[in-house]
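Subject: Interface between my chains keeps coming out wrong

I've been trying for a while to get a sensible model of this assembly. When I model each chain on its own everything looks fine, but I need the whole thing in one frame so I can look at the contacts. Pasting all components below, labels as-is. Any help appreciated, I'm running out of ideas.
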Amino acid sequence: MRELGLLWFILLASVLATASLAERNPGKKANKHQVSLVQAVEVCTAPNTQEPSILALASCDPVVPSDPGCTFGAKGNGRIKAKARTDIALQVKVKGIDVSCEGETLCLTADFTMSSDNCASTGDCTSAYQDDFDTENVCCTVIGGQCQTKTTLNAAVPGLVTIGNRTELSLGELGLYRAVLPPSQPAFKSGLLIP
Amino acid sequence: MSNRIAFGCAAVLTCIVASSPALGQRSPASKANVYQSSFIEGVEACTATNTTLPGPQSLSGCDPVVPADDVCKFTAKGFGKVKLKTKDDMKILVKLKGLEPACDGETLCLTADMVWTQDGCSSGGSCTSESREDLPLGASCCIATFGQCKIKTTLTTALLPEAVVPGNRTEYTLGEVSINRVGDFTPAPAFRAGVLVP
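Reply #2:
Try treating it as a single job with all components included. I did that and got this:
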């Protein structure tokens, strides 16, 4: 009788624990992500100088563009927007790209982690960290120094967001890379500029 | 004739020499002044995969999803957002609402994965900093009170006045932007920039 009671207790505890995982509150109204673009530069791995602010961060001179074949012109700028509702609307807009990049195809790459309640295991699950994920179909061609596209994540990568299921997308670095190069070598990356 | 050829050669050489530094020079954007995002709850990193996510890629995943922070979480009505806006400085705005009562009194701070690129480095030229992950943006912090936490500051106020060199063009490459709870020593942040469907 005691053993039966213990068994019920264990069963109840495990059911409650499972329910609490499913009842996470990932964040209401989490529907917008917008970044400006800066020129992507090579990672500094062997510092040989210090940057000039009081932080004096270990740095590398010279600055090496990740993709010297596609840079901003004098008035170049760009942004990437993601807006979530039942799918994720994606918008890429870059202007004033240097003439050397004319005719090139630029595609979106992203670092992210995704959580979904529609996993093969039937429970909620979180993906491994995706570094330089190639969105494949979120691309545009540089014409007249401009490159822009509008699409949705489901149109670009069908099935990644399943309608009616909950998908959380934790977003890190976003970038645009030339289709002739790997996504790990983007021309432009999410960032800010002062002044 | 030979003078003309010599002049032509000199012109070509000058062009080559002049264009070589251009490769090393930066072509920064004319404008890159806004970063804004919603926050979603941070979850533990998936390292030992045991399932797959939907979609043609069948991304490897971990079941169950484990919240990164047991103390600071959203309630059912909780939400958060961040906005970074630059001009001569960087304005930092963070708003978190609907936090669990357990989070009240806790200090939450903004961190970002960043790389600095700027002119006037100690070498005399332009330079790129090492990649900094989860870099605390100085005192960009708030104390959760009645389920709310708000940060309104600037980079030079939160960090140091000299963190931005006046007149010196600085580009920041931004990766993950997060909110960490002070005293939480787990590597995953309580909240991360991101979006949620639906």
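Reply #3:
Confirming on my end. The mean pLDDT of chain A is 87.
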